[in-house]
Amino acid sequence: MKIEIPEQKKLVLETRWPVRWGDMDAMGHVNNAMYFRYMETARIEWMTSVGCNPDPQGEGPVIVNAFCNFYRQLAYPDEVLIKMYLSDPGRTTFETWTTMERANEPGVICAAGGATVIWVDFPKQKAAALPQWLRELASV
């Protein structure tokens, strides 16, 4: 199955990771929980690359919703090509989208998911306005 990411989403990260033997389950394919780990790792890699290092005494991102759809199995020793996109910057939130495909089969999506990210004032434990730099990064 081939899935196209709509144009209103902005590609912000493309990276590759090897599937580790321990990522698989008893059925011999990557366990579904690992796809969420792959998406989390991509979000963290992107956030640190743009200088977003959450400070528990300041502000930063919090995931409030995450999902993943599974289309094809990944297994050891696959190499996963991960693409992360941003969209829909709001007052306090933005969306992340991630596709995962085998590096040796570009364009064939094995899984696709995403997350709603809210910007939080950690000491106050409440939503805060997205910083302008982040709003600009998430805008198409």
TrEMBL record:
The keyword tRNA-binding does not apply. Keywords: Hydrolase. Pfam families: 4HBT_2 (PF13279). InterPro entries: 4-hydroxybenzoyl-CoA_TE, HotDog_dom_sf. CDD domains: 4HBT. GO terms for molecular function: fatty acyl-CoA hydrolase activity. The keyword Glycosyltransferase does not apply. PANTHER family: 4-HYDROXYBENZOYL-COA THIOESTERASE FAMILY MEMBER, NOVEL THIOESTERASE SUPERFAMILY DOMAIN AND SAPOSIN A-TYPE DOMAIN CONTAINING PROTEIN (0610012H03RIK). Belongs to the 4-hydroxybenzoyl-CoA thioesterase family. This is Acyl-CoA thioester hydrolase. It comes from Melaminivora alkalimesophila.
